[in-house]
Each structure stands twice: as structure tokens, then as C-alpha cells.
Design goal:
With 388 residues, the protein is mainly beta. 9% of the residues lie in helices and 45% in strands. The chain has a ten-stranded parallel β-barrel with strand order 1-3-6-9-11-10-8-5-2-20.
Length: 388
């Protein structure tokens, strides 16, 4: 994307060409509840356990649009798990995920996963490393680990339990489907439907590798050259808005540099809006984003986002309408206090930490996740694209 800046006077013509291509291709894509799509690839939805086969995640998902497109990347980036962690996920507290509208609220961790007592996953848990737990751990659908599964307490899996290296621990074990593990050494009451050979589900559940990650910084750089700021009478530098209490954005693509100045604005969003911010922003606070009926906001931040504030952020009746994308290798996001967030967070290069009681209505993609207290995620997905 940075090479575009060297094109000089040619950039507007390229921008027009990109815009024209986007208008021709359109954004039409609707993913049905059963996980099938009328566009490219299949969409979301866990395969609920039938006791016979592993169905941790569907093999495909919608295609990610180009950063120069007016189409939102949300249906592709949030098509699978409600929580997707590219590294490790650890907590000294309680994790609860809940599905919305009959959908599963899956958790995918490419590193190690450690759970404290009271962990409840309304879907499947897929882990690329080891799974450890203390107390009780309940997974509604399948559990898969490419390493060891170990712990002590009440352990329940509604579907299949797959542990490549083995299962060990003590307490009570319930597996509604098949136990597919290497060595098994679990002391206590065991209720297992069937036993079978371990099956590797294949492709990773999250696009965490460099080739699969959405280029947030590149999208911001492209929006710097191609945007609707002039049409809307919006400056390119957010510092020019200092002293303004609120900004109303109608459908379109907008770019602002000096992102820290945006932290003092109220954003009134009307229609399908993409807002690209360049620079660090200290906080996104309570009531800062106000969505009109039917409106959506894709907010891209190329920099550090330090804190996401308390409740009333986003629309609790439509959490899928607000999507936050954070790029930059030094990005870090902190949820502090009784944090309530209604939206989807895509930050595969950011470390996320939670303290106290945090509730997310939407979805979460992060590099590492750690928390102390209680973290509740009510999974929501973007099922369709707005028409052009």
C-alpha cells in the first residue's frame, strides 16, 4: 500500500478505478444460519455433535475483500469462532461464552489454553497447544487439543473430545460423543459414549499467520488516498476538529490522521460507514459511537488503542453493527472496570487484558488474552454485506 504514495498525480485515477471496480463487483453476500453462503465460500456455524464425526469448524469462509474496497471485511474475519486467540489464553477467573440466535459461541486458541473454575463454552473449544483447567470446565460441543488435556474437577464435553497427546486428571469426566485421545489417565467417575481414534481436523481455525491476517495498516494507507472526506466536508487531520463536540458521518469511507484527537469526539453514524484512523488513540469511551437505526461502522485504527471504556458502547440490540480493527505490532487493548462492549474486535497483533467484570457482545480476535475476574462473550456474527 505504501507504494501508492509515490504515484503522485496518478493516484486519483487509480482511486477512481478501484472505486469503479468495487461498484461493479458489489458487496452482496449473505450467510445463512446453517453456515452456507450465497457468495464465495461457506460461512459461519459450528457443526453440532452427532456422536459420529468431528466438526470443529467449517473448512471455508467468505473471501476477504481488498483493502481498497468499500465492502466490509467483517463477514470473512468473524465467520468462525466467537473468540479467536492467535497466541495463549489464560485467566484467573471465569470465562463464559453464549451463542445468540441458536449459533454456537466457539473458542479457538492457537497456543495454550488454561481455564479456571466456572468456565462454560456454548460451542466448541479448539486449541493448538495444551488445555489445562482447575475446577469445572464445560464445553457444549467438541473439544480438540493438539497437545495434552489435563485438570482436576468436573469436566464435561457434549460432543467429541480429541486430545492428540493424551488426557490426564481427576474428578468426573463426561463425553457425549467419542473420546479420541492418546494415553488416558483420568481418575474418578467417567461417562463416555464411545472411544475412537484421534482425528486431526486440519486447517487452523483462525487466520493468524501473516499471509491470512487482514492488513489494517494497509487499509488505512489506501483510505488516505481514496476517501469521501471532500464530499462530506471533513478534514483529513483530526486535530482540525478540536473544539468540535460531535461529527455526523453518512455512508462512505473516511480517513483521519492524528487519531488521538478523535478520542474527544462523539461519532454519529448514519448508514454504512468506514472510518480509518492513523496514529495512536488513548481511549474509546462510553457513548462515543452512536449508531442510527440500521447504521454500521467499521473503525480501523493503525496504531495503539489503549483502553476501551465502559458500557453503552455500540448498540446492544445489534452488536454486529460495530466493528473495531486495530493494527500495529505494538498494539494493546485494555478493558478496565465493569466494561461492556457491543461489537466485534479484530486485533490479531494486540495483547488484550481484562480486569474486573467484562462483557463482550460480538466477537474477539486477538494475539494474547489474559484476564482476572469474569469475562462473558455473547457471540454475534455479520451475516450479510450491505448493497452498494
Amino acid at each position: 500500500m505504501k507504494k501508492l504514495s509515490s504515484l503522485g498525480l496518478l493516484a486519483p485515477s487509480f482511486a477512481f478505478a478501484f472505486a469503479a471496480a468495487a461498484l461493479v463487483s458489489g458487496c452482496s453476500l449473505r450467510v445463512d444460519g446453517d453456515g452456507t453462503a450465497d457468495g464465495a465460500g461457506s460461512g459461519s456455524g459450528m457443526v453440532r455433535s452427532n456422536g459420529q464425526a468431528l466438526g470443529y469448524f467449517p473448512p471455508e469462509q467468505p473471501k476477504v475483500p481488498e483493502p481498497t474496497s468499500h465492502c466490509t471485511p467483517a463477514p470473512a474475519l468473524f465467520a468462525k469462532a466467537a473468540v479467536c486467540v492467535c497466541g495463549d489464553m489464560s485467566h484467573a477467573g471465569r470465562l463464559v461464552t453464549r451463542g445468540i440466535g441458536g449459533d454456537a459461541a466457539d473458542v479457538a486458541v492457537l497456543g495454550d489454553f488454561s481455564a479456571a473454575s466456572g468456565t462454560r463454552i456454548d460451542g466448541s473449544l479448539r486449541v493448538g497447544g495444551d488445555v489445562s483447567f482447575a475446577g469445572d470446565l464445560r464445553v457444549a460441543d467438541h473439544l480438540y487439543s493438539a497437545g495434552d488435556v489435563s485438570g482436576a474437577g468436573d469436566f464435561s464435553v457434549g460432543g467429541d473430545l480429541g486430545a492428540k497427546r493424551g488426557l490426564s486428571g481427576a474428578g468426573s469426566l463426561t463425553v457425549g460423543g467419542q473420546l479420541r485421545a492418546g494415553d488416558v489417565s483420568f481418575a474418578g467417575d467417567q461417562r463416555v459414549g464411545q472411544r475412537g481414534a484421534f482425528v486431526d481436523p486440519g486447517a487452523a481455525p483462525c487466520g493468524c499467520d501473516a499471509a491470512s491476517r487482514y492488513d489494517v495498516a494497509g487499509a488505512v494507507a489506501a483510505a488516505k488516498l481514496q476517501n469521501d472526506n471532500v464530499r462530506a466536508g471533513l478534514p483529513l487531520d483530526a486535530s482540525a476538529l478540536v473544539g468540535t463536540s460531535s461529527v455526523t458521518l453518512k455512508s462512505g469511507r473516511y480517513y483521519l490522521s492524528n487519531a488521538q484527537a478523535v478520542g474527544k469526539l462523539t461519532l454519529n453514524v448514519e448508514g454504512a460507514v468506514q472510518l480509518y484512523l492513523e496514529g495512536d488513540i488513548g481511549a474509546v469511551g462510553e457513548g462515543q459511537v452512536k449508531l442510527a437505526k440500521g447504521a454500521t461502522l467499521d473503525l480501523f485504527v493503525d496504531g495503539k488503542l489503549t483502553t476501551v471504556g465502559e458500557a453503552s458502547f455500540g448498540d446492544p440490540s445489534r452488536p454486529e453493527a460495530f466493528r473495531l480493527y486495530v493494527g500495529g505490532k505494538n498494539a494493546a487493548i485494555t478493558f478496565a472496570g465493569r466494561a461492556g462492549f457491543h461489537g466485534l474486535v479484530y486485533a490479531p497483533e494486540a495483547d488484550l487484558s481484562f480486569a474486573g467484570e467484562a462483557r463482550i457482545q460480538g466477537g474477539l480476535v486477538a494475539k494474547h488474552v489474559s484476564y482476572a475476574g469474569e469475562l462473558t462473550v455473547e457471540g454475534a456474527r455479520v451475516w450479510s454485506q450491505p448493497e452498494t
